[in-house]
Design a protein that fits this description.
Layout lengths: L19 H12 L5 E5 L6 H9 L6 E7 L8 H15 L12 H13 L6 E7 L6 H17 L9 E7 L4 H5 L9 E5 L5 H14 L4 H15 L3 H15 L7 H14 L2 H12 L3 H10 L8 H9 L2 E4 L2 E4 L2 H11 L90 H4 L37 E4 L2 E5 L16 E5 L2 E4 L5 H9 L11 H10 L24 H15 L8 H9 L50 E7 L14 H4 L5 E4 L16 E3 L8 E3 L2 E2 L7
Parallel strand pairs: 1-4, 1-5, 2-3, 3-4, 12-15
Antiparallel strand pairs: 6-7, 8-11, 9-10, 11-16, 12-13, 13-14
Helix pairs in contact: 3-5, 7-8, 7-9, 9-10, 12-14
């Protein structure tokens, strides 16, 4: 029987190693008083599901286990997700007749209270919820709010004290249960699964090789060589073992060259693990953060959101005081994928282990696999972000020496007062804690610091050049959402429906750096009155004084859209702009944005229903960065708004999770703005394909996130006099 396995390890599997402490914590969690739910998280294929299967064998009969793999839910909408969840629970704990009617959180809670009331006081129902990433974002958010409600109500309903929930997943759990701004953070006991410890990883390899007939001393020696390359990664350890068993079947002793051969074979084959890591990088826009990780090994901090996400998708780890690539095999694979020359200082340290002379296993003696292209036809590689562009004037040549970071030769990074980032990295809070840097722009008049609450603020005698130009969207109905016949439509875009909106005016283009600059150089980041309470707390804690890429010449040209802006900053900018002009500006609602982009009859793209190359700055344009606003006049919308497909994502006022048919309500009032939860992003970006730049496509993120393709567009209920 085969010893190694790269799939889920069943109860009693000899290949299950290194999770003794985590398993003991889970057992206690399932038997003790319910004061926290549980979260098991870690990188892809790190043994989370295998740990749940081991848990099943450790619990007494008084604990009823309901294990649910959300991969079977096939991204269903929230109503269907609650029905399927109830159907699974019903198999373990009967929930009464007509389970199909349990389509919401209140109905599920009521049925659970009734069913749990019938069980003995010392019994427990444990829901093991695995692979939450397979749920649609709307269903995942609805479920998280429901389970948080169940947890709180247990204080009033003793029946719900018998319910324990354990989540299992990867990066999708970061925004749901692990991060400080997530729905379930305060009610969960977190169990992070690291790689296998050195002793257990080596013993696992040795045991498996001995089952295949390899002599004990040699099997241990080869196990050390494997650990030097994969550092106890559960999947890669098992996969290397499978390949080495195959090589051993030839009847010749294994050598260090066989370890190198197995590593090269894994990189060339690009198994699902490597493809999934790369796919997650693209989905969460982490490629530049990965390049930074590969180049310079940043100082470790849990406040580095982008690096924490790289950890959760399986590429990064904590190495003492610094972030490091998880293991040398992944460093080799992704150095080639991302086009990074990794200096020796970034190599993951190999533990010093005395090895017998028969098989040299030191890292330096393990042959590095030849440089093999790892492009896989199943993985679409994103275009490299060009660093130098002829149309952007470079800053004065005052090179700043940074000996610890290997700089790209084409990137002049100088300004004598600001330390430049070596690459276009996804925002890191420590990088953003810069003093306010006034950026002089003679053509832009700096406004005076005015309070939002001052009704006597005088309107400037003429509209200033930093005030966005608006276009009129007349009152009347429009077609919102997507129909069932549209093959690109997502579930959350349905049903298609007609919605009647009053007249409004929307920015002709996204807000540019030149238009945003007076907010930065004025009192935008220092006057609390412009900010929501949560936004100001975030700004203070992270010491935010400018957008994330404000001092990076590749992104801050005056005619380019401002990027690296959080939803909090977008709201503050609109309030500041209102104060400077005595005219009410705000972020658009999701419905207002979509009507302006699609026109009254719901065009798929702003220009029509047929994709037209060259009509917008999307991934297909292969530009790899934001372009000056208004550069695609052929892609204008029905109402003459520009750049509503591609270039940058644009924040909306709307909270994420709003269902269709869309209900019109005040989404800019103080109460609405202070609500927790994600916020909608619309329009796609230069980083996304034609499907994601459709007018109906819905995206979201948490209000503190700032990326190199996040911007904003303003809206108003009335035209600006003189505009």
């Amino acid at each position: 029987m085969a010893f190694f396995s790269t799939t889920v390890l069943g109860p009693g599997s000899p290949a299950f190693r290194g999770r003794t402490d985590e398993l003991a914590r889970l057992v206690r969690l399932c038997q003790d008083e319910v004061t926290k739910y549980g979260v098991i998280y870690g990188g892809r294929q790190n043994g989370k599901t295998s740990l749940l299967y081991q848990l099943r064998t450790q619990l007494p009969d008084s604990v009823r286990l309901c294990q649910i793999d959300f991969q079977a839910f096939d991204r269903v909408p929230p109503e269907r997700a609650f029905v399927m969840l109830a159907e699974h629970i019903h198999e373990v704990l009967p929930l009464g007749a007509d389970v199909a009617a349990i389509t919401s959180a209140p109905r599920l809670k009521a049925r659970l209270r009734e069913a749990l009331a019938q069980t003995p006081d010392d019994h427990r129902l444990v829901l093991l919820l695995d692979e939450l990433g397979a749920l649609s974002p709307a269903s995942r958010e609805a479920l998280s709010y429901a389970l948080r409600s169940f947890f709180h109500e247990r204080l009033l309903a003793p029946q719900l004290q018998k319910l324990l929930v354990i989540f299992s997943g990867g990066v999708e759990l970061y925004t749901m249960a692990v991060s400080g701004v997530s729905t379930l953070h305060s009610v969960c006991d977190e169990i992070y699964l690291p790689d296998l410890p050195h002793t257990e990883a080596v013993q696992l390899l040795a045991d498996g090789l001995q089952v295949a007939g390899v002599a004990p001393p040699l099997s241990t020696d080869v196990g050390e060589a494997v650990f030097a390359r994969v550092a106890g990664h559960p999947y890669l350890t098992q996969r290397m073992g499978e390949l080495l068993v195959g090589y051993a079947s030839r009847g010749q002793p294994l050598t260090a060259a066989d370890v190198a051969r197995a590593e090269a074979e894994i990189i060339i084959a690009a198994p699902p693990l490597l493809r999934d890591i790369h796919s997650d990088m693209r989905a969460y826009q982490l490629e530049d953060a990965a390049r930074r990780l590969l180049r310079e090994q940043p100082r470790f901090s849990r406040s580095h959101d982008d690096l924490v996400r790289l950890e959760l998708i399986g590429l990064a780890k904590c190495d003492g005081d610094y972030w490091a690539v998880r293991n040398p095999l992944l460093a080799t694979a992704f150095r080639e994928r991302l086009g990074v020359e990794m200096p020796p200082a970034v190599q993951v340290a190999t533990p010093a282990v005395e090895r017998p002379p028969a098989v040299p296993v030191a890292t330096s003696e393990v042959a590095q696999p030849p440089a093999v292209p790892v492009e896989n036809p199943e993985v679409e590689m994103p275009p490299a972000v060009p660093v130098a562009t002829p149309e952007v004037a470079q800053p004065p040549a005052v090179p700043v020496a940074t000996p610890a970071v290997e700089m790209l030769p084409a990137v002049p990074v100088a300004t004598p007062k600001v330390e430049r980032l070596p690459a276009v990295s996804v925002e890191s809070p420590k990088m953003e804690r810069l003093p306010a840097v006034p950026v002089a722009t003679p053509e832009v008049e700096r406004p005076s610091a005015l309070s939002v609450e001052n009704p006597k603020v005088a309107r400037p005698p003429a509209v200033q050049p930093w005030v966005p130009v608006l276009v009129r969207v007349p009152a009347g109905p429009f077609l919102m959402g997507s129909s069932d016949v549209d093959p690109m439509a997502d579930v959350n875009e349905k049903p298609q429906h007609r919605l009647n909106l009053p007249i409004y005016w929307i920015g002709k283009t996204p807000v540019t750096n030149a238009q945003f600059r007076p907010f930065v150089t004025g009192d935008g980041y220092s006057n609390r009155v412009y900010w929501t309470a949560a936004g100001w707390d975030w700004r203070e804690e992270e010491r935010i004084v400018a957008p994330a890429y404000w001092d990076d010449w590749r992104w801050n040209a005056g005619d380019k859209p401002v990027v690296g802006v959080s939803w909090f900053e977008a709201v503050a900018y609109c309030r500041w702009l209102s104060a400077q002009t005595s005219h009410p500006f705000r972020l658009p609602s999701e419905a207002e944005w979509e009507k302006a982009a699609r026109g009254p009859e719901g065009r798929i793209w702003p220009w029509g229903n047929t994709w037209q190359p060259g009509y917008c700055n999307s991934e297909e344009a292969k530009i790899g960065k934001a372009t000056p606003v208004g550069g695609y006049d052929k892609g204008a919308s029905y109402y003459a708004a520009l750049d509503m497909a591609g270039n940058v994502w644009e924040w909306c006022a709307t909270r994420w999770g709003k269902r269709y048919p869309y209900a019109i309500k005040d989404e800019w009032g103080q109460r609405a703005l202070e609500q927790d939860g994600g916020r909608v992003l619309r329009g796609g970006s230069w980083h996304r394909s034609q499907n994601c730049v459709r007018g109906a496509y819905r995206n979201y993120n948490h209000p503190c996130y700032r990326y190199f393709d996040y911007g904003l567009r303003v809206v108003s209920y009335s035209p600006l006099a003189g505009g």
